[in-house]
Design brief:
The protein has about 260 residues and is mainly alpha-helical. The chain is about 60% helix and about 5% strand.
Length: about 260
């Protein structure tokens, strides 16, 4: 039993929930106090380095979410039609099975993200005309987590969601929680804040805001730390892992310094 049962179908909630979670969780970060002692970059640096204004970022994210919602609707409609034609009733699996589906979906998500993301960097045409749009947000912040070219959003994020959903075998109801969880993790990685003592994501996952900051900041860093959003083993296995150290700035906050390869 879930709170939306009787009001919305699981399929409808699977489309709506990740969008709502994105704006609520990113909005939460946006409304926080300055937290200068926990920032990976100063606010002055953020304003100077980022070449795309916030309204443009918001429009870009809304466009991507519209595309994702259309693809999700088509996927859920297909599954619903298959169930109707076979007269099957969807039975929610046990919690251990759902946990296993979560793990499978996380691994599929990371694999898709790593190889497509890395190719978008190594193919000069794709980087120049598509992926570079995301890197215009040089200093990451929460609202910019899913700011990207519409084609990147389709191939890197939307198709990744479809593949992880199908391979894991999760139900539409389980997908509500998985995609909301993934959305929050991606926002957290782009938050620009280092809060491991307060933030469970940063405490549990080695792929965090500091790890991803290396990839966003500096000409050297963009060739490393492609993994997103959960684990870092693809980077370690394939030689694209860049270690880092966190150094406290005299004026407050932290600086992420690339380590030796």
């Amino acid at each position: 039993m879930v709170f939306w049962e009787g009001y919305l179908s699981d399929e409808a909630m699977g489309i709506i929930a990740p969008v709502v979670v994105y704006w609520l969780y990113a909005g939460f970060y946006h409304l926080l106090p300055p937290l200068d002692h926990y920032r990976l970059h100063t606010r002055k640096e953020k304003d100077a380095k980022n070449v795309v204004p916030l309204p443009t970022v918001i429009k870009g994210v809304l466009l991507q979410q519209s595309i994702q919602a259309t693809v999700a609707y088509s996927l859920f409609l297909r599954n619903s039609c298959m169930l109707l034609s076979s007269s099957e009733v969807v039975v929610q699996p046990s919690l251990p099975v759902q946990f296993l589906q979560f793990i499978v979906a996380m691994l599929v998500t990371d694999a898709w993200q790593y190889f497509v993301h890395r190719y978008m960097h190594q193919n000069k045409f794709l980087y120049r005309h598509i992926h570079s749009q995301h890197h215009k947000v040089v200093v990451p912040y929460a609202f910019g987590a899913f700011y990207s070219h519409p084609l990147e959003g389709l191939f890197l994020d939307t198709f990744r969601g479809v593949v992880s959903f199908l391979i894991s075998g999760m139900t539409s109801r389980t997908s509500v929680f998985f995609f909301s969880f993934t959305m929050m993790k991606a926002i957290d990685d782009h938050s620009g804040l280092w809060l491991p003592g307060y933030n469970l994501f940063q405490l549990v996952f080695p792929n965090n805001s500091a790890y991803h900051d290396i990839h966003h900041y500096g000409l050297r860093g963009v060739k490393y730390n492609y993994s997103q959003p959960f684990f870092i083993f693809w980077d370690k296995l394939l030689g694209t892992h860049m270690p880092y150290t966190l150094v406290k700035r005299p004026e407050g906050g932290f600086e992420v310094r690339p380590g030796k390869l």
